[in-house]
Amino acid sequence: MLIDNHHRVHNYLRVSLTNNCNLRCFYCMPNEELPYTPPASLMQVDEIEVIAKTFVDLGVTKIRLTGGEPLVRKDAAEIIERLSKYPVELTITTNAVRLHDFFDLFIKTGIRSLNISLDTLQSQRFKDITKRDNFQLVYDNLLRAVELGFSVKVNVVTMKGVNDDEILQFVELTKNLRLHIRFIEFMPFSGNQWKNENVIGWQEILKIVGDAYDMVPLVRNAHDTAKKYKVIGHEGTFAVISTMTSPFCGDCNRMRLTADGKMKNCLFSKGENDLLAALRRGDDIQPLILQNIKSKAAERGGQITKDFKTADAFTMENRSMINIGG
Predict the structure, then answer these.
(1) How many Å apart are CA 89 and CA 197, to the nearest integer?
(2) pTM over 0.85
(3) Contact (Cβ atoms closer than 8 angstroms) between residue 182 and residue 241
(4) Span 8-324: which CATH code?
(5) Taking a C-beta distance cutoff of 8 angstroms, is the pair 190, 30 a contact?
């Protein structure tokens, strides 16, 4: 078992397959011409499988594939097929641009839960945020995923002055669709133009929804990052991931593996352990994994104080979001 010094058991691994993406969301990617990691420096298929198996042997029961955009990787299908052999819940986070090419594979390999990133329901605003004109394709793929019976969570990075005027429109989607909308508070990362005044917090979002709908809170399960709610009479649900205003670190069970094989014990952690380099040297990577878990801070990587308004994305020691993995 992977247990940190705060007695938290870790059984959930998020694996970034690439820091490449077919969209250019400003809060994730510092600039249009972000240099990508050379392919030889990325984990190869065999290496991903070996590292993932090591985590499974240490008690991991859930693996989520992320990016960048994981489905732009040419060997994504092979990686999915290999990891599906292990006794884990295998899931994926995607921007859904290429989702239509993978539905059959997901069904074949047992992937039944998808997280789809979508920050707006307006075509022009989608283009403004992502620098790409793919809204209709993404939205159609989202609807198709629901139709095929996938459990679909929609991740909405919610920012004041950018898309906070669409909160009710997203909630309205849950009326007739079995969707799980998740409003994510804007978080600081290297180069992502974060300002505390752009954060729209959990309680603000609840007030907006509560003024328009009758809603009830849902039971929180262990390790949930989202505070969940349901509008009475709606098919789906909505939630807030309140990383900035009300963190949920107390029972965190998550670990991260970057596309270049570095292990991070928190989204905001400074330190990393290079599992890929150790693996290529022929070293046992289990001690590095255990060391990394033991060094995990109590809350938000030890870099953000209780008052998130003092956070500074320019001075935090971290990667850009695309280089961490969603």
Answers:
(1) 37
(2) yes
(3) yes
(4) 3.20.20.70
(5) yes
